[in-house]
Design goal:
The chain has 164 residues and is α+β, with helices and mostly antiparallel strands. It contains three helices and nine strands. It has one domain. A hairpin with a 4-residue loop joins strand 2 and strand 3. It is globular, with a radius of gyration of 17 Å.
């Protein structure tokens, strides 16, 4: 969890990072520090929905897309370190749980737009090896990185979430 003034109003919002188990995706949830309550909303009928709590007070929910490699080999991607530097939000999203399985280093503007996405050397090598062995057909730089820049950003009122 970190804090940063995302909207320039002098109040630092709270950013909590983790995994949305229903979507099997890394997530950042943004809160007004004066109002943090309730439970995040999950897709209708989702058994992971916490019962007996009011709807969560999230201002923004950001979901990070999964790579083709992650979808093929892992149940979900995993958020790594989260920090603020130079006015931007920085984080890593791990795509494989093997030694040097690779990650993506994201930088986001205060408005939560992707300013950069850089694959680790391990992820680059993993894509090359899997392409060379015929296990995947996509190219990390040509196909994946443009798609991975497109985060799912949900703002209030939060829609009824549909399972992905």
């Amino acid at each position: 969890m970190i804090s940063s003034d995302l909207d320039g109003d002098g109040l630092e919002e709270l950013l909590a990072g983790g995994i949305n188990n229903s979507f099997r995706q890394s997530t950042i949830v943004v809160f007004d520090p004066r109002q943090v309550s309730g439970a995040s909303r999950q897709p209708p009928g989702d058994p992971l929905q916490l019962k007996g709590f009011p709807a969560g007070s999230e201002k923004v929910v950001v979901l990070f897309p999964r790579t083709v490699v992650n979808q093929k080999f892992e149940p979900m991607n995993r958020l790594g370190p989260l920090w603020v530097a130079d006015g931007n939000i920085h984080l890593t999203v791990r795509e494989r749980r093997i030694p040097d399985g690779g990650y993506l280093a994201y930088s986001l503007s205060p408005s939560l737009e992707v300013t950069s996405i850089i694959p680790s050397d391990g992820l680059i090598k993993l894509y090359q090896d899997l392409r060379n062995s015929g296990q995947i057909q996509v190219d990390l730089f040509r196909d994946e990185l443009p798609r991975l820049r497109k985060l799912t950003v949900l703002r209030p009122p939060l829609p009824t979430l549909a399972a992905k």
